[in-house]
Amino acid sequence: MTSLAGATQDEVRRANLSTVLRLLHQDGPQTRSHITAVTGLNRSTVGDLVSALAVLGLVRERSGDIRGVGRPSLVVEPVPGSAVVLALDLRVERTVAALVGLGGQVFARAERQHHDGDQSTLIAEVTQVSHEVLAEIPPGASWVGTGVGVPGVVRTRDGLVRFAPNLGWTDVPLGDLLRASVGGGSGDVLIRNDADLGVLAEHMRGSARDSSTVLYLGGDVGVGGGLFVDGRPLVGAGGYGGEVGHMRVRPDGHTCRCGARGCWETEIGLAGLLRAAGREHVRDISVTDLVTAAREGDAAARAAFESVGDWLGIGLVNLVNLLNPQSIVLGGHLSAIYAMAPDRVASQLQTALPAARELVEVCSSHLGGDATLVGAAEVAFTTVLDDPVGALNSNVAS
After folding, report:
1. Are the C-beta atoms of 67 and 360 separated by less than 8 Å?
2. What is the pLDDT of residue 394?
3. What's the whole-number mean pLDDT along residues 102-110?
4. What is the pLDDT of residues 218-259, one digit of tens each?
5. Which of 52, 67, 154, 285 is the most buried (most CB within 10 A)?
């Protein structure tokens, strides 16, 4: 927790409002007594903070369940329609958009397939699907930000996509383009690497809620990584960290879209999996199709999962030794690889250093294909969660 030593009374109050609202946003309805116990604030302070948030329309109180004799406890809950965000998961083949309310309630969701790789066409499609869900903003709600996940290297301060090989992008000012075509409400348009958003989502609402050091590996077309250390994101000096898919594991291997040879992505990415199964030239085949084939006795499909499972485990050994995570969460097609070949992955992991290996748990993503979208929403809520009064005073959506 950030120290408030030397802070003014207004700064302390703003921080306390943020603490209470974050708790309700992340964990859902709570009694005042539970809020008091969790935050360490005294009872009267919590009552004052809840009242202030209720005046803003962000929370409300209702009667709780009657347990035993006496009046039921009042329960404080977030009001989903008070503040909303636009969340976008910009993938290689499609964009998924959602309008998400405080507390995580989804008001609207839509998808738009990308018709070609042209940058201007793709931006137009993202804009269209954004406006489609924004049309569902509840009356009186404040649109407090926009979060966007991208499969590439992102300069977080302005949303410049430095390199997204699977999109064919280099130095695309996505933040500026979306600010002009979509806007961010009273907040900003925040562009992030998709796996960085995935680890945030799994840490807050998914498989790794009880872990402070988490590695998330997302597989869509390529492979990306996001890392939390001691409950905080680790993204590197420029925000470019986590590109584990471009860790070189096989110098004599296949050429990657990044231009290097033998990247981990070439072995465990979707193209690598299909190639191992002899399906690289089959159109419109999905990982689900390959799983079904393997379970129905297709020897080539079965062998592909086992072979790629070995490479998945080999890369995980390097990451376990380097990062010492508590949890490794596998998303996208990596989750399917792990489910189909858990023994092969586990066998490779046995070669990791024992001290680090004994602490790590490998699991599949609880949020599945929505991990990046959920993370995008959480990033977009930063404005209102950090400063509820300031965020709502700046703009109210009509």
Report:
1. no
2. 64
3. 97
4. 988 889 999 999 988 988 888 888 889 999 999 999 999 889
5. 154
Q: For residue 62, with 0-12 CB atoms within 10 Å meaning exposed, 13-18 middle and 19 or more buried, which class applies? A: exposed
337-384: pLDDT as tens digits: 999 999 999 999 999 999 999 999 999 999 998 999 999 999 999 999
**Cα separation of 245 and 263, whole Å?**
6
Question: At residue 397, does pLDDT exceed 70?
Answer: no
The mean pLDDT value for 49-57 works out to 96
- Specify the pTM: 0.89
